[in-house]
Design goal:
Helix content: under 10%
Strand content: over 45%
Radius of gyration: 29 Å
């Protein structure tokens, strides 16, 4: 195995990438015929941190383009133009000027500046660290589903800052937003009309100390895998399609037909794992453009477009263990080396039309995220053959795709009435053809007793070897629409009402087949996977197929929501404002097992409930810079489809198998916050807040384990939970213009930090029950069989710390920032059989990001970006612990990543 790629070597590589570009930088941008990186910025083009004049003026006046349900942010009777201060809720709004000033190239990066947000791998942004379940993302006020149907939120690093007019983060609930509001909502508003034409071209490369240039594994697949699109090699074979569509159980299909199906599978291209001694570096490219045209006397038509491509490699050398009794140590222990090749293709095309004060937006989004996985593992399993070694091989191809289109109309009728209308359609797909798994066994028994005791063999009998192939497919359609009316009765009173509708339908299928042989000759048992399952072997040794899909390999799921709301915003007396409203939401969610084998039984589970969801926020302005808020609300959290459908699936991030639970119920949340905000300046503030949540029927993850150490994670409702804590945040800029050096005249130090302390407890009493996915009939299981009273909620850390220290130039793009994050240990799943919980230890992560505006020959403005992520080399650790004994479910080195990129603006 090659030696790890050291941080020093990576720095040398990055220096080689940067040095030629840095040589092109113009030292004096104030002379000559071309503007420097920070000059001549009058519109959207260019990589400057200096906003355009139009954007800066709009932000200074508080005129920020925000498209959310309920028209724009309603501000009544406030004397400040700071939107975060004057808004009726706890919000952070990044205007186009603010986004430009951060110098970030994508929205996920710019949101790192917002207190209470955490950005995790892949650009996923969580509000208050509450994770996937309690975060909501909207695009122009309409639902923004994830391209990964097994996740709830979308990776926001796909949105370049050049196409976004504003980003709103709201942490307190108001009735104009969907009722599934736990931690908060992130709303992106696309630009309707670019202020001037622009074109940006970017490319970059990165390397990781644990992956790039290191040993890894891959399989051929198809010749077009590098594009993220299969060339047809992995299409479901016609014979298998016929068998599935026939409605005949595989056990009733003639053996000769099963052999024919087995021989129709693509063999060596999908089953031979190949060793790669030096994995390639990651690379990416992007193209962003926008322009506008005059239409008539007072109209303007704008067009924005973006496209990007990235190709990344990641290898994890992972220790995976399991135990029936943690104090006795691991009964199963494997060392797995898995290599993932992730290819992502994104595109956005938007049109905007402004006719006077009337505005139309048509936004179209395409995301395709493909993961090619190859893995080998060796270990022992005391639940099977004692003392034997097991070698497993896995290959897989996951295609995930999102197509989203939406139309938004914002109309003003006179000075008092505003009407917003929005409609959208989204389709999400996940296809996983040819998930292949092989298991070979070496008994380590003396060859006098077992002639092949010193060799790995696969007898295809699921005792001394196995081979499985799985085909799964998921498709989801989402239709949404809404209308909002806002009427201003006076400068101090505004009434808003609206209606929203969404209809989601999902079909999910999963067929798992195992190859089966009897008395396979020993020489054949020692063959590599593609020879073992060659046409000759299948035909000559009568290798057949067994189905392990269960009685219901296909499930349909649906969720239809009708909602209406009304809210009032009023300044009751000078300095005291109230925002109060109520939302009525009626939801009908169901999961149906499709009776493909005509058993006469169709399992059906339904959650059909309606809710009244009140919300109120009171703001008291003690002085122009100091104000206090108090808010209370009721919200809900519905189970996600992936949590309801009783099918197993592999989460490639956690490297763990999950299974849904059709018996889940909605969670109801009662929320209360009090908050003090002291605004030192337009971008500077100190805030403190205390919060409390009571959750009825919280959905918790729990883990089950069999006597053969087969581990499955599922979901169930705990009876009740409470969560409370406080958060402190501060943002301060220190100008350096007083220093006696031209270098510091336009520079400042950015100091941003926040701390969140949280405590949560499950409440489990005698007589409480729950329904796990294993339930069939009879009395409901006791909740105390799965949950312990007083333990914290899954996913919750007691301490969260985010600190940013940066040096930035206010005249041109020049930023150097250190980012430190810390999260204390958190539970990822309840332990099996009331054993200790499974915990993750996130620890401390230190990153460094530098951006520099440069001018290439010809006066072309460009941005050079350098990143060093996980500088301290934090490891991923997820384990159970009893005393001094630890059982690691996942333990691997994350590695340090060094990245460099160049973006050129025309």
């Amino acid at each position: 195995m090659s030696k790890p790629l050291s941080l020093a070597r990576l720095l040398l590589i990055s220096t080689a990438l940067i040095a030629p570009m840095a040589a092109a930088q113009t030292t004096d941008t104030s002379t000559g015929g071309t503007a420097g990186a920070g000059q001549g910025a009058t519109g959207d083009a260019g990589m400057s941190t200096t906003p355009s004049a139009a954007d800066e003026a709009a932000a200074a006046q508080g005129n920020v383009d925000v498209s959310i349900p309920g028209a724009d942010i309603v501000v009544t009777g406030r004397r400040t133009t700071n939107i975060s201060q004057s808004a009726p809720q706890v919000v952070n709004v990044l205007s186009a000027a603010d986004i430009k000033r951060t110098g970030e190239g994508d929205i996920a990066g710019s949101l790192q500046r917002v207190t209470g947000l955490s950005v995790v791998s892949g650009g996923f942004v969580y509000v208050r660290g509450l994770g996937d379940r309690y975060s909501l993302a909207l695009l122009n006020g309409s639902p923004l589903p994830s391209p990964e149907p097994l996740k709830r939120v979308v990776p926001l690093d796909i949105f370049p800052t050049s196409v976004i007019a504003s980003t709103l983060v709201q942490k307190s609930y108001s009735a104009n937003f969907p009722g599934e509001f736990g931690g908060g909502v992130i709303n992106l508003t696309t630009k309707a009309i670019p202020t001037e034409s622009y074109l940006e071209i970017g490319f970059g490369s990165s390397a990781n100390t644990e992956s790039s240039g290191q040993l890894g594994y891959t399989h051929y697949g198809s010749k077009s895998d590098w594009t993220g699109f299969d060339d047809g090699t992995r299409d479901v074979p016609g014979l298998l399609k016929q068998a599935i569509n026939s409605g005949t159980p595989f056990s009733n299909i003639p053996r000769a037909d099963l052999r024919a199906i087995g021989m129709s599978f693509e063999n060596s291209n999908t089953s031979v794992v190949q060793r790669t001694n030096s994995l390639p570096f990651n690379f990416s490219g992007s193209l962003n453009a926008g322009t506008a045209f005059d239409v008539g006397s007072d109209g303007r038509l704008g067009v924005i477009a973006t496209a990007s491509y990235s190709n990344k490699w990641r290898t994890r050398d992972n220790l995976q263990q399991a135990s029936l009794d943690v104090e006795q140590g691991a009964g199963k222990s494997y060392q797995q080396v898995a290599t993932d090749n992730q290819v992502t293709v994104n595109g956005l095309l938007g049109f905007g039309l402004e006719l006077g004060e009337q505005k139309l937006r048509w936004t179209n989004l395409y995301i395709r995220d493909t993961l090619k996985r190859s893995a080998l593992a060796v270990g022992r399993n005391d639940g099977q053959i004692q003392g034997a070694d097991y070698m497993t091989q896995s290959t897989a191809w996951y295609e995930r795709q999102l197509i989203n289109t939406q139309l938004v109309g914002e109309f003003k009728i006179g000075d008092s009435l505003s009407i917003d209308m929005r409609g959208g359609y989204a389709n999400s797909q996940r296809e996983a053809p040819y998930e292949r798994d092989f298991e070979y066994v070496r008994t380590n028994v003396d060859t006098a007793i077992d002639p092949v005791g010193d060799r790995f063999i696969n007898a295809l009998n699921r005792q001394r070897g196995d081979a499985a192939i799985t085909f799964s497919d998921l498709s989801e359609d989402l239709w949404s629409g809404g209308i909002d009316l806002s009427y201003k009765f006076s400068p101090d009173v505004t009434l808003t009402a609206g209606y929203a509708y969404s209809d989601t339908k999902r079909t999910s299928s999963r067929y798992e087949l195992h190859f089966d042989a009897t008395n396979l000759p020993v020489p054949v048992q020692q063959l590599r996977p593609d020879y073992l399952l060659s046409d000759l072997s299948i035909q000559y040794y009568d290798i057949s197929l067994l189905e392990f899909s269960g009685n219901y390999p296909v499930y349909d799921a649906a969720l239809k929501v009708h909602a209406g709301y009304g809210q009032v915003q009023a300044e009751v007396v000078p300095g005291l404002t109230i925002n109060a409203g109520v939302r009525y939401e009626k939801g009908d969610q169901s999961v149906t097992g499709v009776d493909v084998y005509n058993t006469g039984v169709t399992p059906f589970n339904q959650i059909k409930k309606d809710y009244w969801l009140p919300a109120v926020t009171v703001t008291f302005e003690a002085s122009p810079k100091l104000q206090f808020r108090a808010s209370g609300s009721k919200t809900i959290a519905r189970p996600q489809f992936r949590e309801l459908i009783a099918q197993p699936f592999l989460d490639t991030d956690s490297n763990r198998f999950y299974r849904g639970n059709p018996f889940l119920k909605d969670s109801q949340l009662w929320n209360a916050d009090i908050r003090a905000e002291w605004y030192l300046g337009r971008e500077e503030r100190i805030t403190g807040a205390a919060f409390y949540k009571k959750i009825e029927n919280p959905i918790e993850t729990f883990t089950t384990i069999t006597d053969t150490y087969a581990v499955t994670t599922s979901f169930a409702n705990a009876p009740e939970a409470t969560l409370y804590g406080f958060e402190l945040e501060a943002q301060k800029y220190v100008p350096l213009d007083g220093w006696d050096s031209p270098f510091f005249q336009s520079r400042r130090i950015a100091l941003i930090g926040n701390y969140t302390y949280t405590q949560s407890k499950l409440k489990v009493s005698e007589g409480d029950t729950t329904i796990p996915y294993t339930y069939t009939t009879g009395d409901l299981p006791a909740a105390s069989d799965y949950f312990l009273d007083g333990v914290p909620l899954t996913g919750q850390s007691d301490h969260l710390v985010n600190v940013q220290i940066g040096l930035e130039d206010t005249d041109k793009l020049s930023q150097q920032t250190l980012l430190l994050t810390y999260a204390s240990p958190r539970v990822t799943s309840r332990g099996p059989n009331l054993q200790p919980d499974i915990k993750e230890v996130p620890g401390i992560t230190l990153d460094f990001v530098a951006r520099q505006g440069i001018t290439l020959p010809g006066g072309i403005n460009s941005e050079l970006k350098f990143e060093a992520r996980n500088i301290t080399g934090r490891k991923f650790q997820e384990y159970q612990q009893a005393g001094d004994t630890k059982v690691y479910y996942n333990r691997y080195k994350i590695g340090t990543t060094i990245a460099a990129s160049l973006t050129v603006a025309f």
